[in-house]
Design a protein that fits this description.
single chain; disordered N terminus; globular; 395 residues; 30% helix
Amino acid sequence: MHRHIAITIAALIGCVSCGAENPGVPDELVGASRSSTYPERGVVHWAPFDGWDDETISQAGRSKAIVVPMDRCFAKGSWKVIERLRELNPDIQIVAYLPVLLTYQLPADTTGLKEVLPFLFDYYDAVKSDWARTTTGDTLMIWPGGILLDPIADNDINRDLIAKIADLIEAYQEGGGPRIDGIMHDYFMYSVYINPACRPGVEGEPDLDGDLVPCSEDRDERELLLLWQKEYLRELRRRFGEDFVMIGNGRPPQEDAELAGLLNGIFYESFPNGPWCWTDREGFLRLLDNQSDGFLSTAKGRTWSILANDQLEQNNFFCLVSSLIAGCLYTELHGSYTFTGWTLSVDSGPPAGEAVLEGNPDSLLTASRAFRNGEARISFNPNGGRNETVFEPAR
Ligand SMILES: [Ca+2]
């Protein structure tokens, strides 16, 4: 632990604002609403655009990026909203959410689905021969309705599956509608976890290579699982280019430098604690570590991590202040991954310095960063909990 923290601080000293400098972006975006470039926002909307009025679209247009399910990005019903967002903010990044190695069961009658969400249907169809199985031969459903795809074929990675998915995305990208600017990959994994809600319907344990040894006890299998995920990213990068924004959720992007280097950002789903019950301080220091130079790759000249937390409303402000210090994007959520507009109002202006850590990374610690209009500051208690979270305007 001590060694990790020492490395964290060493990395911080060399951190050059983690892509936050962006001199080409105007302080005001086109549209009715005045907007500060900092803090930097990212919309996270895992839902249809139904109900988005002009005001919601205008507010969403104040963000750097917007994460929307890929099937929605490629649906005609969404095109007007996406085109309007680009009119309001030509620099906005439309990032398509797509789970890693997962397909969802479809309703029995897919007639409407083919019309309204053709990508969802075509994706299901393209990968339906690649469902993974358990040690008892059962279908490997890992979330209710969500079936894992098998990354292993003939004791090697399943390259056909990579090609099928990449081919499909490429076909839609070239299909004549608005193009996507990137993908948010949900969710990279070291091993396979079956959500308890799938039991007792699912029998047996995950077994991706078919040798009847569960994934959790099968090192070769887990190595191929991780390798598949990296090769998948390499193939998407090869097809869509260096500036295609790729953001990853899950633990491997936060720990595996090789995987992180194939990405441009990390999605922090439950910042700062993660599903792994980190203290606030541990989660925050991990963020700084991840955002230090050279861990993630850049796209369009910067990194694209997003801080999110839909569980605790008070964490929205903690995400905002943390994003300022770390040089990434924050989102504001209120109980679900549905964008309803911005309620927090901080006009920090651009950074005026680097992040500074003072104190003891294992005890009392304060992180701060100067901005044109004030200072972002977070302090932590000896037990790792947060004390003060503030943006203090300059006098
Ligand atoms: Ca196995």
